[in-house]
């Protein structure tokens, strides 16, 4: 099933929907391809994937996915492999996670520029108030709880951990997005998928066993 989405012309996998289930601007999402790279790298350990194909995928991601951004070279969100690309990010499948997946180092300049853009006013879906900050997306233009998790998995920021303590969310339950002023649920009440990711993040960051 996965192979039918592969394009031998550019060496990337295409998609029709982004992680928020919205239609994509360009068919080759860099985050999605890094996720495939990670899955294939895992399968390789058990003899179910080719090392050559994994290496070629990595090369194609860097060839088509690294573009010029506001802070220097960074990873694009999507591309058509013909020179057109989109700078964007989506909390349910953020480019901030590619370092956590092992695709690059958290000290890599291209990655640093990417994360810097995601969590900056250059990103029109970045929200920062006196109490809270986070990113949203076209699907839900409010700060997402997942955006905080994405950052914490790479950079264990004490300020963001403290910020989480002040989030009311959905009466204490994980939710899709929250109000940037009050920390109260904005969309996606009792979001089970987010709750699992949130719990996983806290266990990792706080070293809970």
Descriptive report:
The protein has six helices and eleven strands. Helix 4 packs parallel to helix 6. By secondary structure, the protein is an alpha+beta fold. It is globular and about 50 Å long. The longest helix is centred in the N-terminal third of the chain and has 15 residues. The strands form five sheets. Strands 3-6-7 form a three-stranded antiparallel sheet. Strands 1-2 form a two-stranded antiparallel ribbon. It has a two-stranded antiparallel sheet with strand order 4-5. Helices cover 34% and strands 14% of the residues.
How are the elements arranged and paired?
Blueprint: E1 6-7, E2 12-13, E3 28-29, H1 30-44, H2 51-65, E4 66-69, E5 72-75, E6 78-79, E7 85-86, H3 109-118, E8 126-128, E9 133-135, H4 145-154, H5 158-165, E10 177-178, E11 185-187, H6 192-205
Antiparallel strand pairs: 1-2, 3-6, 4-5, 6-7, 8-9, 10-11
Helix pairs in contact: 1-2, 4-6
Structural class: alpha+beta
Q: For the residues shown, what is the average pLDDT?
A: 95
Number of helices: 6
* Helix-strand sequence: EEEHHEEEEHEEHHEEH
Low-pLDDT segments, ≥5 res: none
Radius of gyration, in Å, reads: 17 Å
Describe the structure concisely.
This protein is an alpha+beta fold and 209 residues long. The chain has helices at 30-44, 51-65, 109-118, 145-154, 158-165, 192-205; strands at 6-7, 12-13, 28-29, 66-69, 72-75, 78-79, 85-86, 126-128, 133-135, 177-178, 185-187. The protein has 6 helices and 11 strands.
Features:
single chain, two-stranded antiparallel ribbon, globular
